[in-house]
Design brief:
The chain is of the alpha/beta class and 225 residues long. The protein is 51% helix and 14% strand. The strands form two sheets. It has a five-stranded parallel beta sheet, with helices on both faces. A three-stranded antiparallel beta sheet has the order 6-5-7. The longest helix is centred in the C-terminal third of the chain and has 24 residues, at 201-224. It is globular. The structure holds adenosine monophosphate (AMP).
């Protein structure tokens, strides 16, 4: 199952993508995490991406597309993946479709996370991230068991530089101007499912799981029929 998570920063895509990845046994691919890793390890891609990320702007399409293509072609993606944060422009969406088409595949489901901008600002201002494994927490809504320490790997938690209030507002503006239009693109493709992000984390996970299971059933029927 090839799944795309679409929605503004802070909508809870990363948290839900982790759950889907665990349940469906498919990799969670976060373009933001891949870019941050590239910056940490000092690759050319990282050097090209750094200044855009710091300003809350989108990294140029060709830079992100390169890193995502390499990741999707890895063998652990043969049964699918959850894409979180990619695509973010119409060109990226078209390149993804074309790439999957050449592999005889397609995007099966797009979850569109609907959330108010006020909620986004509250979520991002309390978000902390593991400096080792990239896991996300929220000081109020998803606190780690030990303050400032990652539950999964004991890494130190820190606030992302681009979660500062002024950068968050820029990221929301960029989302409105460059990414929100993808909702129509995927709605026209009839694979868009709206998910309310204002519910409890477990309820959102259940709603997503139900939709995935329905889709899997539908696909099984089509194969048999
Ligand atoms: P995220 O972790 O998804 O919030 O992404 C953090 C930052 O990485 C974004 O604000 C962008 O600067 C950059 N980024 C992540 N994914 C993309 C993408 N698909 N296209 C362009 N820039 C991206």
């Amino acid at each position: 199952m090839r799944i795309v998570f679409l929605g503004p920063p802070g909508a809870g895509k990363g948290t839900q993508a982790e759950t889907v990845s665990r349940v469906e046994k498919i990799p969670h691919i976060s373009s933001g995490n891949l870019l941050r890793e590239a910056i940490e390890t000092g690759t050319d891609t990282g050097a090209k991406a750094r200044s855009y990320i710091e300003k809350g702007l989108l990294v140029p399409d060709q830079v992100v597309v390169g890193i995502i293509k390499d990741r999707i072609l890895k063998t652990d993606c043969k049964n699918g993946f959850v894409l979180d944060g990619f695509p973010r422009t119409l060109l990226q969406a078209k390149i993804l479709d074309e790439m999957l088409r050449t592999l005889g595949k397609c995007v099966d489901l797009v979850f569109y996370f609907v959330v108010s901008e006020d909620a986004v600002v509250e979520r991002l201002s309390g978000r902390v991230m593991c400096s080792i494994c990239g896991a996300n927490y929220h000081v109020k809504f998803v606190p780690p068991r030990k303050k400032d320490i990652c539950d999964k790997c004991n890494g130190k938690l820190h606030q992302r530089a681009d979660d500062k209030p002024e950068t968050v507002l820029e990221r929301l503006k960029v989302y409105r101007e460059q990414t929100a239009g993808l909702v129509e693109y995927y709605r026209n493709n009839k694979i868009l499912k709206e998910i309310s992000s204002d519910l409890k984390i477990e309820v959102i996970s259940k709603n997503i799981a139900d939709i995935i299971n329905n889709e899997l059933k539908k696909q099984k029927k089509t194969k048999v029929g």
